[in-house]
Specification:
- This protein has 97 residues and is an alpha+beta fold.
- A hairpin with a 2-residue loop joins β3 and β4.
- The chain has 2 helices and 6 strands.
- Strands 1, 2, 3, 4, 5 and 6 form a 6-stranded mixed sheet that branches.
Length: 97
């Protein structure tokens, strides 16, 4: 049974992710356990990978960059991402989940 990775809340959603920095390209790599696996080419230094994750999700979800933020796990591969102004159903559809 697959665990939930996208949670609806007031005004948007939260997404649990596992980030793999220093990848060859930025991509959504599927689901691993209870997290969305995201590969980014940015290094995990000075928040560069966090910015890359937010930019990638904003692009994939077709939302403005300033609506996506890391709310937990700033220095960890396991992160919680907040996206404002989108529904869980829209996220699931755009991510193909």
């Amino acid at each position: 049974m697959r665990r939930e990775i996208v949670f609806q809340d007031s005004g948007g959603v939260t997404i649990t992710v596992k980030v793999v920095p220093n990848a060859t390209r930025d991509q959504i790599a599927g689901v691993i356990g209870d997290r969305l696996k995201i590969r980014v080419s940015a290094i995990a230094e000075s928040g560069k990978a966090n910015v890359a994750v937010c930019m990638l999700l904003a692009h994939v979800l077709s939302v403005k960059k300033n609506t996506v933020s890391v709310t937990a796990g700033l220095s960890s591969p396991q992160k919680t991402i907040r996206v404002i102004g989108i529904t869980k159903d829209m996220v699931m559809c755009k991510l193909g989940l």
